[in-house]
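Office hours follow-up: a student asked to see two folded examples consecutively, so here they are.
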Amino acid sequence: MSRFVQILESRTLLTATNSSLAAELATVNTNAAAVKADLATLTATAKVDMKAIATDLKGTSKTNVPLLKKLQGDENKWLTKIKNNTNALLRAAPLSAKGVADGDAFLAAPTKLSLQSKIVGDVNALNVATTAPLAALTADIPSATISADVTALTTANPTNTTLAADASRITISLLQTQIGPGVSQAISITDSGHLVSDAGSFSTAVSALNTDLATLEPAPTTTPSLVGDYKGTMKTKGFIFGIGATKVSFELDITSQTLDSVEGKIIVDGQTASGTITSRELTNGKVNLTLDDSGVTITLNGKVNVTPTAQGLPPGSVISGSGSISIAGFSIDGDFSATKTT
């Protein structure tokens, strides 16, 4: 059986395909285009409404000037926040494209585990790409400040019915996401409502793509097997430029392995700890071993070779990394490297 087939059999079944990723990215891009169009419409609407209010106030009392300036200033600040939130949200689009490109590359070369490591970064980035911007966009749509500015203007001009009508469009189409329902009134989605709705659809599309992409991440495995007796050394880092570094014997003798633990013993400079050790091996070769029991504390993080070494040793032959070990008062912290002898 080939090593590639072994890897596929030992990990979670891949569900992402080039076609599925392409379709999901197309949905992301379609929704991104809708969000951009909504933002442009909202901005244009705000400009038209503000121009109408300025026209309504021409020739009226000079006391309206500071009231209008305050409304204009607060609306500009509001629009800036909405634009910033929307642009922050849309950064998930190029992140999605990068994730798909990395996914396609890995699907084309599934034994090249460096490509798989890129997918981990892509998934982590997409996990948080839309949550905060979407929440901020939704929260910032209502604005008590602008509402107060509009009220101040209409209160100062109670007989200006044209102003009242134009001002109401700001409080309705900009600061609310829908109109109604009411008596004999159907629900009507406002410009802000379309923006929030399409932003939500965009976020959902990004999440769907990310869920699919995550199936290509490294998965727990027992291949290559860690069962065997690894012997080598562990070296402390020293104080400066390697001065004071200490090298001691290191042995990791594993007799059995599951997806979340190994049985065996660790011997460091003659000090032995044995029993069940919590472990995690991933398809990209990363290995983690931890034990905290009865005065024994072990934390080892490293990698096992998943391809033949330059010396021709088969997968699972060399394990190396760094960590700390404390056994019965003996403690060491440093780098280790060991080769399987049996």
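And the second, which I mentioned at the end of office hours:
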Amino acid sequence: MPITFTYDAPPEIRRVLDAVLPGWSHAPHMDAPIRAVIDGDGYRVTGGGADVPAADAWEAAHWIIAAMLGAAVEAVPGRVVLHAAGLRGSKATTVIAGAGHAGKSSVALHLAARGQRLLGDDRLVLDTKVAPPTVASIGLARKVRIPLPQDFDDDAVAYAHAAARPGGGGADLLAWDPAIDPPAGTADPIDHIVILCRDSSARGVRCDPLPPVEATAMLLPLCGRHAGDTQALVIAITALVHRVPVTRLTAPNSAMAAWRLIEGESP
């Protein structure tokens, strides 16, 4: 699933894109369909389904990425952007889905701190039409919230301090590591889908296999842009959960969730 994009943006936005898209093949071009222009005290991003204002270069870069990714996904039937991280195995990837603040990036950082290979920590592209279904990296730099969450273990704290680079929007970027981070477009078969649920009152980690109806209901709100209309999305996710097992993973913190994903048991 090769991903190559062109865009037109002022130099300060290009610098942000260089920082957050280390795995993408991208280049500025005056005739690109996706553009960011100075608009008053901020910017306006247009093209690829976007026509939005942005207060600063980081927000403008966010909308450019969303427009570029959306245009690529919507062009191919069966593709869906899912809010998820990915843990790569030897032959397939476990998709770690979750809503905002569910802990996807934190779990991914704990996995990376233990030398695990990832497919991303925030958004991935599902291809539901192929057999078997696949998931692909979009090549974004991984990130960590600042200040660090209180539930990080010692290994994750040390890794974050060593790898963090200044970012924006309340998060630092993590240095690109070819041993952990694949280029954009790297695709693997889906081994399993895990939906993260953070519960600080939980005494341990619990894994509950989900029936297809419940799995579909939990995954649909986690989907971003997609090919086709809403009905096409429902059909795609429904078909996916009948082909790939889905589990709800409830854990009190990111470290314990990561251990369960690596070893199949809490530490």
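Two things to take away from it. The mean pLDDT is 91. Helices lie at 11-20, 57-74, 104-113, 154-163, 212-219, 230-241, 254-263.
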